[in-house]
Design a protein that fits this description.
Two copies of one chain form a homodimer. In chain A, helix 2 (about 90-95) links the parallel strand 6 and strand 7 (about 100-105). The mean pLDDT of chain A is about 95. Chain A is globular and about 50 Å long. In chain A, the strands form two sheets. A seven-stranded mixed beta sheet of chain A has the order 8-7-6-9-10-12-11, with helices on both faces. In chain A, about 30% of the residues lie in helices and about 30% in strands. In chain A, helix 5 (about 170-180) packs across helix 6. Chain A starts with a strand and ends with a helix. Chain A is built from nine helices and twelve strands. The first copy, chain A, is an alpha/beta fold.
Amino acid sequence: MTEWYDEVYRDRTRYGLRVTRRLFEGRSDLQHVEVVETEQWGRVLVIDGIFMTSEKEEHFYHEMLVHPALVTAPSTARVLVVGGGDGGTVREVLRHPGVERCTMVEIDGLVVEASRAHLTTVGTAWDDPRLDLRIGDGIRFVAEADSASFDVVLLDGTDPVGPGEGLFDEAFYRHVARVLAPDGVFALQSESPIVTAPVFYEIQETLRRVFRRVHPYFGPAPLYSAGLWSWTHASRSVDPLAADPARVERIEAVTKHYNRAVHRAAFALPNEVRRQLEVC
Amino acid sequence: MTEWYDEVYRDRTRYGLRVTRRLFEGRSDLQHVEVVETEQWGRVLVIDGIFMTSEKEEHFYHEMLVHPALVTAPSTARVLVVGGGDGGTVREVLRHPGVERCTMVEIDGLVVEASRAHLTTVGTAWDDPRLDLRIGDGIRFVAEADSASFDVVLLDGTDPVGPGEGLFDEAFYRHVARVLAPDGVFALQSESPIVTAPVFYEIQETLRRVFRRVHPYFGPAPLYSAGLWSWTHASRSVDPLAADPARVERIEAVTKHYNRAVHRAAFALPNEVRRQLEVC
């Protein structure tokens, strides 16, 4: 009685999950939002037909987006998360005791609503008093925010189509650089260097026009069936390998995937990526 | 006019490729062998409905199976490859000038035949005079081979079903240990620590009963849509991080994925894997 739910990519590949139950379906002004129960990954959040996150493998993505920035930024007091409606990113951010305030700006309230109701193991920090959750346009929020008002900015956006598109623009990155403290760190998901290589390299090029230090890093994201996923650590001057040992030790005691060895390893550039970045 | 070819895993997930042309189909005594042309990965070898290798991403798998062993083994003069019918593994082995003889034992001649005819960019070393290609049972070959007659053994087998099943047994690994020189290195594909975790850990446990040093390592294998793939470096006494710098430098000049940074990074153990291996 179960059905396949397939995510189709460019009509060239598809990745299908056997769905045992449909838990939520709704349409906001912006997107079609679903939560389905699958045998492989538990509950899965789907936006516009694209698998976004799942109970059983979300930790790979969220730990890798958050911790490299949070253990290398000189201060972690003021963190801004753009996107991240499922709640996994702010959960990882708020594990760091150095975070005094985490502002999260998600454009689609329906994603938060669906996630709070149906993905309760992903978003576990909704009631943390340090969380300042706002439903609104992250691009506009960053454009209007005071300069140097955040120590870390994390971009947890969708792919560069639909409402997430402007999150890949130089104009947006320039505002991120402006709202960051001089020694602040920006980290973002930056697509796959394998199956979405053109987008990956375009993000790197754009970031390099804005930030002096731009370091992509790599890890698994099983739900995206992309072979390898990437995130990027961007800043004026922060060495992404110079992690605070105390912060790393504290966080690796509770993470499922991330630890000091994984942190260092993630920044190793495969030959193809290294060669391509040299000519970017 | 094109069709989807789906690999179905445990009726829980499926990974589909749009096929534009069927190039080969045949049945040996052992397996159903196909080569199809796909938009995503070029030509793909399929055995019993499972995607084995493809023109456009085979380098991830083959470079990671071969080079960590070939740059750490004290000698690389005598190499044995069990399986590897597509030819990608021996191609990478024979790039090392220290290899004097590479014996390859593939159980299914039809895989070699289909690959030689249709995957000409994968197997490029079929005519290398150092290659000793034998069609036969690798388990039997290893059981009958002289002790200490190889410096490196590489196991490039299929999943632990069908003819590849015995390649995951302790009895086979004991013969591998016997035919290896005392300081020889054994490397094998060892499935995914994410989507096939039970098999991954069983392989680790079995290897640990036979080899003193057993080090799994990780990397992408996009065609397997497993999030992360693994290989394992096993030996009596060889440190998998103590690579010969001259050999690394020579090989990383020609590889697409592998290099010294990737080598070191691959051996980083994610938290879940580290914890699980401690209780194995």
